[in-house]
Amino acid sequence: MASQKKKHLLPGFGLSLGYTLVYLSLIVLIPLAAVFLRTTELSWHEFCAVVTTPRVVATYKLTFGASLLAAVINLVFGLLTAWVLVRYQFFGKKVLDALVDLPFALPTAVAGIALTAIYAPNGWLGQWLEPHGIKVAFTPLGVVVALTFIGLPFVVRTVQPVLEDFSAEAEEAAASLGANRWQTFYKIILPAIWPALLTGFSLAFARAVGEYGSVIFIAGNMPMISEITPLMIITKLEQYDYAGATAIAVVMLVISFVLLLLINLLQWWSNHRHGNK
Question: Backbone dihedral region of 88: left (phi > 0), alpha (psi from -120 to 50 degrees) or beta?
Answer without folding.
Answer: beta
